[in-house]
Task: structure prediction
Amino acid sequence: MFGFTDLWKFFVGFFLIFPIVSIVHQAGHVFFARLFGAKIKFTLGVGKKLFQYKAFEIRKIYFLDAWCHYENVANRGKWVHVLIYSGGTLFNAVTVLIVNYLILKGVLTSSLFFYQFVYFSVYFIFFALFPVEYRKDHPSDGLAIFYVLKYGKAYDPID
Result:
């Protein structure tokens, strides 16, 4: 049962761990987009812009959303786009495996922080691959991958 003493766990999870997992996810997209020569913009949060450094910006409600926009990919093959769209999920999955391995080997201690980190990472993997459009012009990674595999090009809601 969720009690008053559990509130701090919720706040740490929601305001610290969830954004970290989101950054890991978006870093996967950024990594593969940059690998293929794309120009990127990485935004963490929604609302008024608080901070910007080159193509990275943080917005006021930093814990709510994040996204990576890319354009001008050097190699425009469909598998390049699939790799970019699946990059976030791949990074989340790899970090889950690394954290579990390090706990198993005794390098990290099993703690609530790592439990929540793995939990939110699996959450990201599932919902990123679920093929839906979250809002207009903002597909899940799974929907974008489906679109690329079906039509052979990057997701374009105008089509």
Notes: The CA atoms of residues 96 and 118 lie 6 Å apart. The first helix runs from residue 7 to 35. DSSP finds four helices and four strands in the chain. The chain has a mean pLDDT of 89.
